[in-house]
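> agent: user asked for a holo structure of the chain below bound to zinc ion. Plan: (1) validate sequence alphabet, (2) canonicalize SMILES, (3) run complex prediction with ligand conditioning, (4) return tokens. Step 1... ok. Step 2... ok. Step 3 dispatched.
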Amino acid sequence: MKKVSSLIIFSLFSLLIHAQSTPRCQHQMTPIKTTTSDTMDVLHYDINLDIVYLSKKSISGYTDLKMTTKHNGLTFVKLDLLKLSIDSINVDGQSISSWSYNDTILSFALVNAMNIGDTVICSVYYHGMPIKDPSGWGGFYFSNDSTFAFNLGIGMQDNPHNYGRIWFPCIDDFVDRATYDINIRVKNGKLAVCNGTLESTVIGTNSTEYRWKLHNDIPAYLASVAVGPYVAVLDTFHGANGAIPIAIYVKSNMVNQALASFANLKQILAAFEQYYGPYRWERVGYVGVPFSSGAMEHATNIAIGLGYINGTLAYETLFAHELSHHWFGDLVTCSSASDMWLNEGWAVFSESMYQEMVYGKEAYKDNMRGLLYDVLKNTHGRDGGYYALAGIPHNLTYGSTIYDKGGTVAHSLRGYLGDAKFFNMLNAYMSQKAFSSQSSTDFRDFITTNTGINVNDFFSSWVDEPGFVHFSVDSFYSGTGMNPPYSVQVWMRQRLNHKPNFANSNRVPITFMDNQWNRVDTIIEFSGVTGSQTYSLGFKPTAVFCDLDERLADATTDYAKVIHNTGLIDLPLTFSKIDVKQISDSVLIQMTHNWVAPDSIGITYPGLRISSRHYWTVNSIPSSNYDARISFHYYKGVDFDNDIIKNKDDSLVILYRPHGAMAWQKVKFTKTGPWIAGYIEVDHAQNGDYVLAAYDYNYLGLHDYKNVRGKLKMKVKPNPSSSVFNFEVNDDRPAYIVIYDSVGKEIAKVEMVCQVDKSKGIWSPNGLPSGHYIAVLFSMDGSPSYKTSIIISE
Ligand SMILES: [Zn+2]
């Protein structure tokens, strides 16, 4: 299923934000186990309902449940049924006189005790007005104009979420699977669309019964009905298992829109068959319903908002998401709500996968980069914290962690295993686990067995823990050899973003390149904080790139591009852009925005706060071929630069280091924009790391003074400065300033010029080394009256 809210938002600085669904619930609840599929097993449901007068918003009829038992001596049946009224119950054709029903659980005694191998048919006759979920998402809907009625099989807020029980008695969990006959009687002129195949139609004087049969087994939440003035848009998909009918049910005036909106449906099916194995269902089906907040993946009968079938491809990703559930969710179902990432994370991953097939590999990368950016920036805000995928709290079953972060972790597993093993494994998983439920650990163990790569450490870190790992190439050494083979040593570094433990058994793609663009790609394996490996190469690399092809969704957003011309180039989702001033030949540039704190080795500037959130890495080859100005974005945002920018008089600077093994140093820059957001611009881009830092205004004494006699204040602007400092004192008595270096040595004396109510002085450091200095104001009698820090920048 997918809740859809907004699609695309542009921020103040036109940074593309990948907005995802934001389902939120108010209460944390412990999952309630109502009935038990441990003792009972429903084999088949035969649902017979009248949904004739839609204005009454009610249903009536009966459901036959063919059941068996998993234990000997079963005497009682317990079924889920929510807020309907029971009319009568038969067990194997015999009417029973008593049952217990509390609006949630229906229980009754069997006529004869059941043993393993026995079956019984229980017929429950009932009626009532089926409910909606308290959140408004999920349940049974009757349109106000009495045109449509339909169900959505998940209640986003209810506990359990499973919503088969709102319209038929059932075992309503993710484990119990059954086949279905669904026979719905509707007013003539309407059509009832359900799962599977329309077997027959019985036309009466005023009403018509539509008889549907689903041959494959599904959990109850995937059973569906939609009633409306439908026509079928028909086609055939020739897939791996032969010809499969496609039937999309829409209003009669929407046929052309449906044809246009689903133009790529067969390509999407072919993509998923290639990636995940054959489509194993008897029909490909969608039904348009008057719902504007998403869609629900009822098996072979996806309920999709009519508004999304608008004749464009704008909602193709949503169609693909739901279709992918016919592998992840419907075919192999999560075994509990706390394993929901196996359904929804993989459906979100499939949103990128189908784009790879239909629109190309760059489309996949762009989509995944946008998703990862969104996850790193927004998911913890939406879900109210950082959560692990496995064992997600009940109120976050349909949250951004499960969907969006789940999608990025599936992508990382692809990078971890490599495409060949990854897709072979998924094909085998769908084949061997078809029509069953699996937990996160079941999936983990399957992968290890199937691929021969032990993924226990991957799951421990990426699935079972909150937060993010971060990988970087700390440094490399190509040695002094003049002839091949060259011995090249690479040092890796792991950092963490809201994650408790360092990950082990990491497999990080790295790329060696020289100035002739000779290239070798490999995987470096290491555990813990640091790792190192030595390689023998036929060329001497001048650059080593970390994850150049963005195969791992670690705490980075990267953008790599070959540039040929001068001009301004946006580097999307990296909070930076580059203005190429001069270029002699092509340059490959990789900009990495690192969503982790850099280490502060070598920070010796008093009063300087270095970012605890992020830094950038520039890697380009050949770096001598171009000259560029880089603009780094700063903004005083929550979880962004509000750790260093606290006050309008703070002084923002940028630091640089050639690589992770060297100390931070100051670089010249210009700042554009107001104090809360703008760009720090650095001329002559160099390979290495850049990080924002700020001097506290209290330390610098930069606060504006108020010209009140008796309260002496001194203002220094600009500060830091490389060329000139202007001093202003709110006192017009004669005075002078002495500049001292950091060890107290007198450097210069500045005479103050008196004006009305104030005095001013000006001083140039004239080639003094950059660093921290003290300016002290003296009265003419030699008594110090005010002291402040100044910074000479490079
Ligand atoms: Zn979904």
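> agent: step 4 complete. Summary for user: The longest strand covers residues 207-218. The CA atoms of residues 610 and 693 lie 4 Å apart.
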